[in-house]
Amino acid sequence: MNYAELKPADIANGEGVRVSLFVSGCRRRCKNCFNGVAWNFAYGNPFDEAAQERILDLLAPDYIAGLSLLGGDPFEPENQSALLPFLKKVRARYPHKSIWCYTGYTFSEGALAEPQANCEATRELISLLDVLIDGPFVEELKDIRLKFRGSSNQRVIDVKNTLASGKVVLYLK
After folding, report:
1. How confident is the model over 42-60, as pLDDT tens digits?
2. Nearest of 122, 133, 123 to residue 81 by alpha carbon
3. Rounded to an integer, what distance in angstroms lies between the CA atom of residue 162 and that of residue 82?
4. Whole-angstrom Cα distance, residue 37 to residue 15?
5. Mean pLDDT computed over 62-91
6. φ, ψ at 109 (rounded to 5°)
7. Which residue in 54, 29, 24 sits closest to 139, CA to CA?
8. Measured between alpha carbons, how far is 43 from 45 in angstroms, rounded to an integer?
């Protein structure tokens, strides 16, 4: 997996000050996507051990609330296989920091509704998240007043409560 960008102190992509990792690779290619450069899976830098250790170090300060994953799309199957072991490290080292993830895929019944996005890592990857922003960006539904999302079709989902209840529980209404 490659990553397009790493923001060490981001306040736009989740609550609090966060470390944001923008992965490379997205097949959806939403019209007027804010990060079209990251559609290419080969774009950017390798997500190697050095990159992972840098992110883990950036998460250390108390003022960092957690990690946000964006893209491209973290839920492209190629990205899931690289992110799963990394998120396990994040959870082990920083159990009280939150993990937010943005995907153009739609969440449904503990997995992703689109079969092409589901792989052996999907359910476990989802279980490591606190908040999932799902759904493609739709230019015609763009609304700059929305918190943490670009278009009104996207949902901000409380993953832990959703998995516990078996139905989607919104984090933000």
Report:
1. 999 999 999 999 999 999 9
2. 122
3. 24
4. 25
5. 96
6. 50, 50
7. 29
8. 7
